[in-house]
Amino acid sequence: MSDHIDGPRPIGDPSADTELKRAASEKSVGRLLFLDVSVGGRVVSVNADGTDRKVIVDGCRTPDGIVVDPEAGHIYWTNMGVPIKNDGSIERVDLDGQNRRTIIAQGDTFTPKQLHLEKNAGRIYWCDREGMRVMRCNLDGSKIETLVDASRGDPRPGPDETKWCVGITVDPDRGQMYWTQKGPDNAGAGRIFRANIDIPKGKNATNRTDIELLFDGLPEPIDLELDLSNRLIYWTDRGDPPRGNTVNRAAMDANSGKRSPPEILFSHLMEGIGIDLDFKGNRMFITDLAGSIYSAKLDGSNKKLLLAAQGNLTGIAYFEIRKKEH
């Protein structure tokens, strides 16, 4: 073991000057990645204002959920495949579209939907719609686990849409996960649940006893995101107006008997699907199936249409990269 201890570099140290100059010559640039299920299925990248559109990957099989690991330089996304078949998959690619590989093969998940990256634990979580499951694996696709099995013995693909799991997000600080079960179209049977990320000792994915129902009677809740600093949960809903085709927000921790109704922040979507939050910029990004990308502040104000007629859009992810200034 070395006995050298790193400390502040002395003034005038050339290496310190080099680091400062490099930092000063770089700036953070925000980018969006979104999924288009039309034209064969694509992963598309744009600036946060909608400019500089680039197709990163094409030939996807009905892509739905997307996350980014900018430090590792990876994009992950789910392919729903054909919902009546057991042929969903999850893929990974570099930020520049190179080194595309499948990490969850067809047959290991039915219809994977929203995806969540839990970087510190080295895992990705997803919901399996027709599989009626909440699942996770390591970042390389190993150690696939079913955390929740909502089927109650139903065959897969699941015939009961109230058991379909769609949106997923994780609170790593408290060791909890949140997911949606959307129910039939516009049936008002959508629900949002919470449970520990690890199955209680002596239980399994089918009979675990720590599942908490947070919200029910929703039109069709889809994708989820969390504001952990303010303990708020955001979600899109693709059901009919007035409560559907919206972005909603509610307190994460209120007692079930004392919860206020969800706050509608954004309305008039055309089947809202994807959502991601940029806390540094105090804004959210939203997609709808009609092909639009919107932004707004986290309280729903300052609504902007960034892009329209982009195809049929599902998941969206915001990230920042460092670029040299010229």
Description:
This protein has one helix and 24 strands. The chain has 326 residues and is mostly beta strands. It has a domain at 63-275: Neuraminidase, CATH 2.120.10. The longest helix is centred in the N-terminal third of the chain and has 11 residues, at 14-24. The relative contact order is 0.14.
Write a brief structural summary:
The protein is mainly beta and 326 residues long.
Layout: helices, strands, pairs:
Elements: H1 14-24, E1 26-36, E2 42-47, E3 54-58, E4 63-69, E5 74-79, E6 88-94, E7 101-109, E8 112-118, E9 123-128, E10 133-138, E11 145-149, E12 165-171, E13 176-181, E14 190-196, E15 212-218, E16 221-227, E17 232-237, E18 246-251, E19 263-266, E20 272-278, E21 283-288, E22 293-297, E23 304-307, E24 313-324
Antiparallel strand pairs: 1-2, 1-24, 2-3, 4-5, 5-6, 6-7, 8-9, 9-10, 10-11, 12-13, 13-14, 14-15, 16-17, 17-18, 18-19, 20-21, 21-22, 22-23
